[in-house]
Amino acid sequence: MHLDSQHAASRGPATFVGETVCATCHPREAAAWRGSDHQRAMQPAATETVLGDFANATFTYAGITSTFFERDGKHMVRTDGPDGALHEYEITHTFGVAPLQQYLVAFPDGRHQALEIAWDSRPSRAGGQRWFHLYPDEAITHGDPLHWTGIAENWNAMCADCHSTNVRKAWSAQTQRYATHFAEMSVACEACHGPGTQHVAWAKQPQRGADNGLAIALDERAGVYWTRDATNKPARNRPRTSEREIEMCARCHSRRGLLHEDVVHGQPVSDDYRVALLDDELYYPDGQIKGEVYEYGSFLQSRMFAEGVTCSDCHDPHSQKLRAPDDGVCLQCHAASYADAKHHFHTQGSAGARCVSCHMPATTYMVIDERRDHSLRVPRPDLSVKLGVPNPCNGCHRDRSATWAAATVERWYGHTPAGLQQFAETLSASTRGEPGATQRLAQLAADDSQPAIARATAIDRLRELTPAAYGALRDGLGDASPLVRHASVHALAALEPRSRAGIASLVADPVRSVRFEAAAALAGVPDEQIAPELHALRARATAEYIAAQELNGDRPEGNMGLAALYAAEQDAARAEASLQRALAIDPAYVPAHVNLADLYRATGRDADAEHQLRGALVRVPHHPALLHALGLALVRQHRLTEALEPLRDAARVDRDNPRLGYVYAVALHDAGDRDASVRELESVLERHPYDRDSLTAIIAFLREAGDARRAQTFAARLEAQP
User: Fold this and answer.
1) Are 148 and 244 part of one and the same domain?
2) Where does residue 364 rank: exposed (0-12), middle (13-18), buried (19+ CB within 10 A)?
3) Looking at residue 7, what is its pLDDT?
4) Is 489 helix (H, G, I), strand (E, B) or coil?
5) Taking a C-beta distance cutoff of 8 angstroms, is the pair 137, 76 a contact?
């Protein structure tokens, strides 16, 4: 054993020492960190930390007038509580600083809840120095999950992990209480560098070895500089050989779900989190930001990531400031000609001349918080014309059309710039269900020139397991990217149990989220169908899956995950108990209502399924998933006439889901109203012209009615699909 390794082993597990200890040897870094957004991510509420107006200021929302005041040196708010009545609450902590600051309130069960009335900390001249509500266009009141006392605003589960250091949620399912704690309240040194006791011990040695005791070496930029190649494009002097720094930042700067709290610094982010893909509700088809996704998923798409750029190439990791002001941060690597009007075609010094205006357009979240898209793409107004995605040109020139913008860009450059990201039309085709979408998804999945997150998204969307699709999934199981492997396992889980056994080798994957997904996919597959040498690894992966769900047992999703496992293992009692726990946490959580009703159906309890769904519709009226499930429950009870109303209402509420209209049309046909059924299918096909189920049904119904000519029109459309 190496001397350094012997010394490290003798020190035992590393623990956290606190930023004041770090600062004794690293004063420059500590000085840059103090006053940063990381340092002020969460602070005790005090005169020097609270930015909002607590001088008896009032704010009215949804008929409730809240008052902010001070009493006995404490910051207080009088506002509506979980029962809808006005109560006085002490503000215990501040949350964030710019451009807004939120405030936390402690509850007796260990919860901390974030007020949705926030303080706009921008200067008055920018519209700030005021109270505002985070959901101004809604009227959220008590009982709603989005109410400040509800599950969506729970600090312990939703916020703490990224605003403090070494957070342990410490939720107890037995007591239904939290004992959440952290090593430091802020995002401090050890949040990124890992626990420091071994490093401190190393620093105190009279003769220091090579092992400095830190769990992670954030040294990817050491000795790195950028030059320009023969075409004047930036080039790293040596390739980036790891993603340690980027994945360290991604632990918070990404849209993801927590799987594991015992973070080992330096492990892949997918070891502890399930990273979101380019889902339609989060991203536009070309990968531009739509939902609140932070930076990682965008940056993975970028040419910058592909060429070896790291976060700290642009951002100082201690102060969080840019390495240079304005365009200077880009011109660290790019030629000065990119700042010339011959490149950007805007007046020098204008907003349109800034690099970020075209390549990192901003989207506003939380009413006033502008965040820039880190996919660093070239403007593509031509895709706005084709697909309806936004573009930065029309983000400024709102009075002009996308067609104008596309023509202008083509005139400037003599062609339409393509950029690295070449997946927009494929992902759009899959969303719209266009002919050939499956084949295009399979091609994207196999295209190594495209970002791994886009390839993983393509795999995740493969629903028809054609030979090409199955080949893409099989290849994806061995891909270098954990995102692609995870997506491949998830997609193959749709196969019947015997065919899923091929996934079994992934229970030995080095990344936890992949093992986790493999365990879930193998639920219900008998051990005898899996190689004996994998049995113990399968048991370990299943235990990891259960532990992850129990960690998130304070959320309905965690209990839903347990229910899915138990249902696949034919353990209906435990599945039902898990779903009931999910609904106890959030009585308005629709997926749990639907899954519980489906569990009742699977166990021959159709009357209980109907009762469950009717009760859910009282809590969540007019929800299409509940209406659709109720209609199907009535059909199974041979009450077709009664079923028509909820099936119709589901199809009317959610016209974007062709399945709902198709099922309603089939029910109309079965009820003897063929003409109405055909009209419904025609309506569905106006919005979803390539929906295979609807095409197949309308062809059959028209032929049945003797209308061969119209049937042939739809048959030709169906046959045109590969």
Assistant:
1) no
2) exposed
3) 41
4) helix
5) no
Residues 247 and 133 in one domain: no
138, two tokens: 């809604």
- Distance (Å, rounded) from C-alpha 182 to C-alpha 42? 12
Spatial neighbors of 704 by CB under 8 A, at least 6 apart, are 674
Task: Kindly tell me the burial class for residue 362, based on how many C-beta atoms sit within 10 Å of its own C-beta (0-12, 13-18, 19 or more).
Answer: middle
Q: At what angle do helices 624-636 and 658-670 cross, to 10 degrees?
A: 30
Rounded CA gap, 491 and 505, in Å?
16
What confidence score (pLDDT) does residue 11 get?
A: 54
Q: Is residue 2 one of the residues assigned to a domain?
A: no
Question: Among residues 145, 163, 178, which one ends one of the domains?
Answer: 178
Evaluate whether residue 504 is within a structural domain: no
Reading the block at residue 435, the tokens are 């002919």
Q: For the purposes of burial, counting CB atoms within 10 Å of the CB of 522, is it exposed (0-12), middle (13-18) or buried (19 or more)?
A: buried
- Are both 172 and 249 inside the same structural domain? no
DSSP 186: S
Going by C-alpha positions, the residue among 87, 78, 88, 74 that lies closest to residue 44 is 74
The dihedral through the CA atoms of 493, 495, 496, 498 has a sign that is negative
pLDDT computed for residue 722 by the predictor: 66
* Beta-carbon contacts of residue 449 (< 8 Å; ≥ 6 apart): 422
Residue 619 lies in a domain: no
Q: Taken in order 77, 159, 170, 22, is the CA torsion positive or negative?
A: negative
- 50, 74 contact by CB (below 8 A): no
Residues 115 and 74 sit within 8 Å (Cβ to Cβ): no
Contact 104, 114 (CB under 8 A): yes
State residue 464's pLDDT score.
83
Of the candidates 418, 465, 415, 419, which has an alpha carbon nearest to the alpha carbon of residue 445?
Answer: 465
Q: Report cis status (omega within 30 of 0) of the bond before 99.
A: yes
Structure tokens at 522: 């193998």
The label of the residue with tokens 């639907």 reads 594
Cα radius of gyration (the chain): 28
Same domain, 373 and 283: yes
Give the Cα-Cα-Cα angle 189, 192, 193 (nearest 5 degrees). 75
**What are the DSSP E strand ranges found in 572-649?**
none
The C-alpha atoms of residue 168 and residue 161 are separated, in whole angstroms, by 8
Alpha carbons within 13 A on the beta-carbon side of 37 = 12
Q: What are the residues whose beta carbons fall under 8 Å from the beta carbon of 222, sequence distance 6 or more?
A: none
| 688 backbone φψ class: left, alpha, beta (φ>0; ψ -120 to 50) | beta
Domain match, 170 and 236 both: no
Can you tell me the distance from the alpha carbon of 675 to that of 704, in angstroms, rounded to the nearest whole number?
11
| Number of neighbours of residue 310 by Cβ within 10 angstroms | 24
Distance CA 253, CA 436 (A): 35
Contact 70, 128 (CB under 8 A): no
Cα–Cα dist 534/541, whole Å: 10
Does residue 132 sit in helix, strand or coil?
A: strand
Q: How far apart are CA 108 and CA 348, in angstroms?
A: 58
DSSP single-letter state for residue 238: S
Domain boundary pick from 320, 345, 377? 377
For the chain, which ranges sit under pLDDT 50? 1-10
Domain containing residue 130: 42-178
Alpha helices in 414-494 (DSSP H): 424-432, 437-445, 452-460, 467-476, 482-492
Closest C-alpha to 266, from 298, 244, 238: 244
What domain count does the chain have?
A: 2
* φ and ψ of 274, to 5 deg: -100, 110
Q: What percent of the residues of the chain are helix, what percent strand, and what percent coil, each to the nearest 5? A: 45, 10, 40
